[in-house]
Amino acid sequence: MPKKILIVEDEANIRELLRLYLEREGYTVIEAENGVEGIKKWKSEKPDMLLLDVMMPVMDGWAVCKEIRAESDVPIIMLTAKGETADRVSGLEMGADDYIVKPLEMPEVIARVRAVFRRMAPDDAPEKLSFDNLVIDKQAYDLVIRGKRVDAPPKEIELLYYLASSPNRVFTRAQLLDDVWGFDYFGDTRTVDVHVKRLREKLEGVSDKWELKTVWGVGYKFETKE
């Protein structure tokens, strides 16, 4: 069954362009012209992904993202005309999985959409890592802390799994962008910092046998302790 993508964008010409390119790639496309309509269609259509504009009348993209994240981990890619780092970081902190700065380049949009779905696709065999009070299941995209499933966006789980797959190895931010995001990322390395910050909020105080650690001036590692 084709993946279903909801485009929430107030500019009709952009919606039409996105729809044409996404349908050409085999996706089913639903459209909404403002945030309120987007919320309604998200609830009724249950899409596999949202392409969400930031600046919209009635209800902006930040508000839509916040409301959806309160109930769902469905992947969200923000579409924004604001290129400032602060705006991009704010979107990621609200739970967006990615962002694309306008004017949109369709090959970039398609690459990002494919990358998200590729990360979500199950492998032939389960990929599960277990540590003290922590289980990371990449196939099911589950994060289990102290025996309880904790909601986390797919990219957070992918990043934690990648780091924990090589305990005590230090990865640079550039390496993490290349390997976790899975394509030539168009953003900056602060993307990694934001996702690590969100993971640490979930993992704080869980165990004294491992730690998601910053290696200053280099990057990050999942450190295990004897």
UniProtKB/TrEMBL annotation:
Modified positions (4-aspartylphosphate) in chain numbering: 53
DNA-binding feature ranges: 126-224
UniProt cross-references to InterPro entries, sorted A to Z: CheY-like_superfamily, OmpR/PhoB-type_DNA-bd, Sig_transdc_resp-reg_C-effctor, Sig_transdc_resp-reg_receiver, WalR-like, WH-like_DNA-bd_sf
Keywords, ordered alphabetically: DNA-binding, Phosphoprotein, Transcription, Transcription regulation, Two-component regulatory system
Domain (Response regulatory): residue spans on this chain: 4-117
GO MF entries: phosphorelay response regulator activity; transcription cis-regulatory region binding
Role according to the record: May play the central regulatory role in sporulation. It may be an element of the effector pathway responsible for the activation of sporulation genes in response to nutritional stress. Spo0A may act in concert with spo0H (a sigma factor) to control the expression of some genes that are critical to the sporulation process.
Name under which the protein is recorded: Stage 0 sporulation protein A homolog
Source organism of this protein record: Agathobaculum faecis
